[in-house]
């Protein structure tokens, strides 16, 4: 390493890259230029070589840390990757001074980035360097005057703790303890947020003796912003402790947090409920968390109820198997029932997004008896989001009891959502159509939903029309070409005569989407004539979409139709007065000829395996949808 | 650290005139261009996106399924939303035994009845349920009204036992966790604030507390046992209330406490510091910044000279960074007032203040830039010539950038400096330094700016410069072209340098594999 770094050092050419010029770049008056230079700091270091980077560049950087935060952020990030540029791990401590200054900057993003880089390079320190250089830096930061350096210190304890001697360890613990009771809430928040991480690297005895008392103190801090962070730490701490200690060391605090007077803290408990549940184990869950969860579901603040409602399914899933059903039926379900008619729509929609998941846990009988009424109630909810969430999770229920049970109430809900004033709601329901169609069966669909699907085609929002065409394609995939021919193709083609040109274009878009799934026969016999006829449309947009459509459906048509019918029309469009029409006609002609020429290649392919390979390559470049299948059949021969 | 009386009174009058509870706007600037979320980022399934920040201060928004109708829908419903946040125990109706009126009992019995009434008023009602406990709510309201009158006119009621009871009653009523905000990104300029539902009681409690603090019999030496640091801390947290009426009362309350409790002053300042720092660097959300700054304005005014290091630190590390916040327009007037107060106290602070502003100068927000320019003019109005010389170079480099801003309001605001007589005189004195800095952009704009009004203003400025220092002006005109060429050449050299460096990196990266990270 020594040798290599010397070589690299010798490579730095003074005459070519005088430090002054480079540093001038870093000092450029224009912030953007300065930022660019800093982002290429590694290049500058490279030009200087490792030795001059250490002796000249780094001191300069350390001295001039007063700049735009954006520049400092880039610098903090760069320095994290600088180990090799200063000569490898044995010199990595040279990077500490500039990073130390950056870790005291006011702007949070800069400081966080500096801490991140420090954490990164701490791994590259040898144990000795860690004690000689790194740990003193942590101590300096931890006892800094201004709160910024102390907050930064909080993030550094856990990376150096495992690799230092026991005396230093004791010091580190002491510093952490001091910061947990710091005067400024900013520092306490930083300490609280690192409490879990720090606990993980501590020896179990110290977790019990030190961490628990800190945890308890932070969890009863006067500021709720500190207390809520202690909830997060609670998860990690509970995981570390043996089961028998949890009751005495963690649970009092957790119980208190679940009933905290600040909704933010209770929200946090609700939000972390699944993690907490896993960390404390089944026994405590049964005795303590179930009532706590009930309370959160009944909380007076909608925020909290919504967070808890989100966790209903996960919580139930993770209950111990032996008592799961009883707990759900006697404790959870009554609360869930109330939430179904909650006054707040966010609560209801949070519940709706998970409630269907309960059916798999409770089984068929319970679902029919207890859950079904709730699903039905939510399907009729006044808020579209709630209904949508129920519909989007129908598959869970389908597995257990089959969707038929729901179909009676499903339909009105779907119809209403399909006509919702918000186009995003309509869009969302369209996306579930194929799924619903699959589950409800073709008969039911034809009877009830087909009209809806067709109505979307003439929606006044383009995104809906687009989704509707795509939906048709998926439906045909499910129900087959014959069904398409009988039910939807006539309607789609009928729109070609609509007075509204947007609807006429929708016909073309539908044909684009449907031609492939409907197959050659339907496309050539039914769709193609309509497309060709539309080439005489008076609206240019329709005409150039004809050209586009012809290009799209080309691969599905047979070569005869291409030659005798498509080609003349495209050639006519090529002489159109509108430049866009011309453009797309030309595009289509060149595209069409690729399809045509592939027929030729196809002939070639039959000559032998080597020419087949050529064909395959050509097919890939032209992305013809037809050819690969043909070639594969050739291959088989 | 004496309290400056005229300002104190002035503030008090303003406070009182606003106590009618109407919402006010503190700032005339109202162009807000809110960036709407692009449709692609709006997913229908809001639940999945509901990641709350660690501080959990951003509750979910109103229905966001359709990104386009949100604002209009909210405008349409004129009804003001209300919320309350008492962590209430649901259920049982509350019963209070009616007590006789204070004026109906003989004077010696009054203090005890007063205490009893205070205790009754500790009961807190649920105002979100508009139908519950109607009778008792009315009873408490009339009792509170009676108490307000009583502390205003009566004498000899303030026994030592009364202090803890008063503080307890006030604490029970006003201290509560504020409810989550109704909308996700509550924009105080656009959205109607959510009003506190329990205001009919709360207002009277505040009113009572202020009368109590202002009462002639009030003795801070006794009260300080109860109005302590913890009390103040909770009071400060209430400044985040969305209800402007409540913040107005809080302002008066805090002002009285700061005035009467000398022992709490340092603590109050420190906690306001913390609130601001959290606001700037952590959450960007706090409703009461303008109110706190207003109080600070009068506090700063009372600072003794020479200023303590603590106060200077507050200026540089807290007030200046406050300029970076997104919602600056909501409290800019108050902030600028504080800054100017500091500079009037100690002109030596001008340099760090101006350098701080230049450091945080907005890069993309023109509206903020206009505010910065306004504040800078206020500062320049009180600047001492010796201080001006110290910062003129960086300052005018920035002004020259503003003058050439394509946003005409920014350019216009900067050019208005030349209408300010005092600033003009400073520029004139230092024209040999300022003219070369300004010349290039002025010259360019006079030829290129799209807005004719700006071009006209620039001509005036150029004319003024010509009259000030015609020799230098002619020189600069003559060398304008060659200067531009020199700049271009320099630019080219830079590019070449970086190209060489880039080549080197490529070469090194290939040659000594492993040593150099690419």
Automatic annotation (TrEMBL), chain A:
HEAT repeats lie at residues 18-56, 95-133, 172-210, 211-249, 250-288, 289-326, 332-370, 371-409, 410-448, 488-526, 527-565. Residues 95-276 form the Phosphatase 2A Regulatory Subunit A helical domain. It comes from the Eukaryota. One of its GO terms (cellular component) is cytosol. InterPro entries: 2AA_helical, ARM-like, ARM-type_fold, HEAT, HEAT_type_2, PP2A/SF3B1-like_HEAT, PP2A_Regulatory_Subunit_A. Pfam families: HEAT, PPP2R1A-like_HEAT, VPS15-like_hel. This is Protein phosphatase 2, regulatory subunit A, beta a. Belongs to the phosphatase 2A regulatory subunit A family. Keywords: Repeat. One of its GO terms (molecular function) is protein phosphatase regulator activity. Residues 282-363 form the Phosphatase PP2A regulatory subunit A/Splicing factor 3B subunit 1-like HEAT repeat domain.
From TrEMBL, chain B:
It comes from the Eukaryota. Residues 71-80 have a biased composition (Basic residues). Transmembrane segments: none annotated. Gene3D superfamilies: Leucine-rich Repeat Variant. One of its GO terms (molecular function) is protein phosphatase activator activity. GO terms for cellular component: cytosol; nucleus; protein phosphatase type 2A complex. Residues 35-90 are annotated as: Disordered. GO terms for biological process: signal transduction. Residues 81-90 have a biased composition (Low complexity). Belongs to the phosphatase 2A regulatory subunit B56 family. This is Serine/threonine protein phosphatase 2A regulatory subunit. It comes from Oncorhynchus tshawytscha.
């Amino acid at each position: 390493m020594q040798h290599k770094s010397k070589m690299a050092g010798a490579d730095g050419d003074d005459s070519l890259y005088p430090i002054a010029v480079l540093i001038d770049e870093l000092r450029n008056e224009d912030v953007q230029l300065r930022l660019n230079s800093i982002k290429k700091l590694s290049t500058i270091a490279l030009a200087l070589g490792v030795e001059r980077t250490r002796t000249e560049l780094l001191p300069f950087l350390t001295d001039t840390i007063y700049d735009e935060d954006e520049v400092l952020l880039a610098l903090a990030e760069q320095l994290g990757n600088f180990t090799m540029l200063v000569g490898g791990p044995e010199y990595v401590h040279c990077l500490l001074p500039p990073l130390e200054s950056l870790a005291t900057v006011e702007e949070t993003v800069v400081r966080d980035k500096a801490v991140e880089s420090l954490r990164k390079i701490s791994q590259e320190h040898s144990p000795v360097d860690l004690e000689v250089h790194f740990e003193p830096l942590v101590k300096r930061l931890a006892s800094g005057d201004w709160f910024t350096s102390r907050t930064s210190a909080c993030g550094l304890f856990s990376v150096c703790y495992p690799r230092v001697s026991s005396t230093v360890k004791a010091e580190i613990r002491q510093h952490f303890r001091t910061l947990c009771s710091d005067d400024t809430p900013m520092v306490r928040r930083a300490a609280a947020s690192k409490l879990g991480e720090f606990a993980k690297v501590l020896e179990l005895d110290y977790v019990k003796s030190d961490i628990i008392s800190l945890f308890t103190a932070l969890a009863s801090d006067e500021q709720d912003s500190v207390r809520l962070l202690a909830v997060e730490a609670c998860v990690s701490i509970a995981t570390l402790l043996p089961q028998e200690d949890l009751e005495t060391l963690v649970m009092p605090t957790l119980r208190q947090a679940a009933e905290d007077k600040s909704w933010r803290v209770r929200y946090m408990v609700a939000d972390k409920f699944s993690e907490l549940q896993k960390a404390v184990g089944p026994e405590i869950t049964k005795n303590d968390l179930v009532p706590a969860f009930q309370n959160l579901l009944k909380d007076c603040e909608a925020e909290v109820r919504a967070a808890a409602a989100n966790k209903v399914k996960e919580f139930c899933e993770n209950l111990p198997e032996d008592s799961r059903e009883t707990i759900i039926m006697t404790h959870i379900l009554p609360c869930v029932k109330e939430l179904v008619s909650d006054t707040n729509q966010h609560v209801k929609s949070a519940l709706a997004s998970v409630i269907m998941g309960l059916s798999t846990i409770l089984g068929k009988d319970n679902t029919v008896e207890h859950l079904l009424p709730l699903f039905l109630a939510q399907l009729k909810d006044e808020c579209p989001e709630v209904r949508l969430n129920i519909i989007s999770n129908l598959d869970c229920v389908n597995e257990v009891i089959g969707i038929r049970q729901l179909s009676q109430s499903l339909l009105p809900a779907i119809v209403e959502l399909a006509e919702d004033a918000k186009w995003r709601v309509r869009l969302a329901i369209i996306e579930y159509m194929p799924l619903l169609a699959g589950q409800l069966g073709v008969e039911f669909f034809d009877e009830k939903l087909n009209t809806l699907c067709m109505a979307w085609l003439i929606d006044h929002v383009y995104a809906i029309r687009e989704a509707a065409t795509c939906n048709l394609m998926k439906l045909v995939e499910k129900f087959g070409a014959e069904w398409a021919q009988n039910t939807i193709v006539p309607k789609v083609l009928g729109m070609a005569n609509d007075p509204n040109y947007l609807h006429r274009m929708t016909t073309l878009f539908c044909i684009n989407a449907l031609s492939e799934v409907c197959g050659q026969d339907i496309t050539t016999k039914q769709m193609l004539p309509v497309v060709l006829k539309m080439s005489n449309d008076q609206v240019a947009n329709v005409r150039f979409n004809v050209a586009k459509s012809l290009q799209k459906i080309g691969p599905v048509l047979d070569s005869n139709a291409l030659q005798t019918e498509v080609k003349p029309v495209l050639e006519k469009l090529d002489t159109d007065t509108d430049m866009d029409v011309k453009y797309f006609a030309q595009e289509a002609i060149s595209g069409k000829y690729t399809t045509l020429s592939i027929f030729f290649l196809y002939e070639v392919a039959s000559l032998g395996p080597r020419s087949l390979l050529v064909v395959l390559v050509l097919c890939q470049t032209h992305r013809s949808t037809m050819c690969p299948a043909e070639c594969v059949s050739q291959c088989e021969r | 650290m004496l309290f400056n009386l005229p300002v104190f009174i002035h503030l008090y009058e303003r406070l009182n005139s606003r106590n009618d509870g109407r919402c006010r706007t503190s700032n005339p600037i109202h162009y807000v261009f809110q960036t709407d979320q692009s449709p692609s980022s709006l997913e229908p399934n809001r639940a999945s996106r509901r990641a709350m920040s660690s501080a959990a201060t951003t509750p979910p928004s109103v229905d966001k399924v359709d990104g386009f109708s949100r604002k209009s829908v909210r405008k349409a419903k004129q009804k003001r939303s209300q919320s309350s946040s008492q962590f209430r125990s649901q259920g049982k109706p509350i019963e209070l035994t009616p007590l006789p009126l204070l004026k109906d009992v003989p004077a010696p019995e009054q203090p005890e009845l007063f205490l009893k009434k205070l205790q009754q008023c500790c009961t807190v009602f649920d105002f979100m349920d508009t139908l519950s406990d109607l009778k008792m709510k009315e009873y408490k309201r009339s009792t509170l009204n009676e108490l307000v009158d009583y502390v205003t006119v009566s004498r000899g009621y303030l026994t030592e036992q009364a202090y803890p009871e008063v503080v307890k009653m006030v604490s029970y009523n006003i201290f509560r966790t504020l409810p989550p905000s109704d909308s996700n990104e509550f924009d105080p300029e656009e959205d109607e604030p959510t009003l506190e539902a329990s205001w009919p009681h709360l207002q009277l409690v505040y009113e009572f507390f202020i009368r109590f603090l202002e009462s002639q019999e009030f003795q801070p030496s006794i009260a300080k046992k109860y109005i302590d640091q913890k009390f103040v801390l909770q009071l400060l947290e209430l400044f985040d209330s969305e209800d402007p009426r409540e913040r107005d009362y809080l302002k008066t309350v805090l002002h009285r406490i700061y005035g009467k409790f000398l022992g709490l002053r340092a603590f109050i300042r420190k906690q306001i510091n913390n609130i601001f720092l959290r606001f700037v660097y952590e959450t960007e959300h706090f409703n009461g910044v303008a109110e706190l700054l207003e109080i600070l304005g009068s506090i700063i005014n009372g600072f003794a000279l020479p200023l303590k290091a603590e106060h200077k630190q507050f200026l540089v590390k807290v007030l200046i960074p406050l300029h970076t916040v997104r919602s600056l327009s909501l409290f800019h007037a108050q902030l600028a007032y504080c800054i100017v107060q500091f500079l009037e106290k100690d002109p030596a602070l001008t340099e760090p203040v101006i350098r701080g502003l230049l450091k945080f100068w907005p890069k993309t927000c023109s509206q903020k830039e206009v505010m910065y320019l306004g504040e800078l003019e206020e500062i320049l109005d009180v600047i001492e010539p010796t201080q001006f010389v110290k910062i003129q170079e960086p300052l005018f480099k920035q002004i020259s950038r503003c003058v050439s801003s394509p946003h005409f309001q920014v350019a216009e605001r900067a050019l208005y400096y030349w209408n300010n007589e005092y600033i003009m005189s400073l520029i004139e004195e230092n024209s040999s330094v300022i003219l070369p800095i300004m010349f290039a952009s002025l010259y360019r704009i006079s030829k290129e700016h799209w807005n004719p009004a700006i071009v006209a203003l620039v001509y005036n400025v150029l004319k003024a410069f010509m009259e000030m220092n015609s020799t230098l002006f002619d020189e600069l005109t003559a060398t304008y072209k060659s200067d531009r060429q020199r700049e271009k050449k320099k630019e080219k050299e830079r590019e070449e340098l970086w190209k060489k460096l880039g080549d080197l990196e490529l070469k090194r990266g290939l040659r000594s594999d492993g040593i150099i990270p690419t």
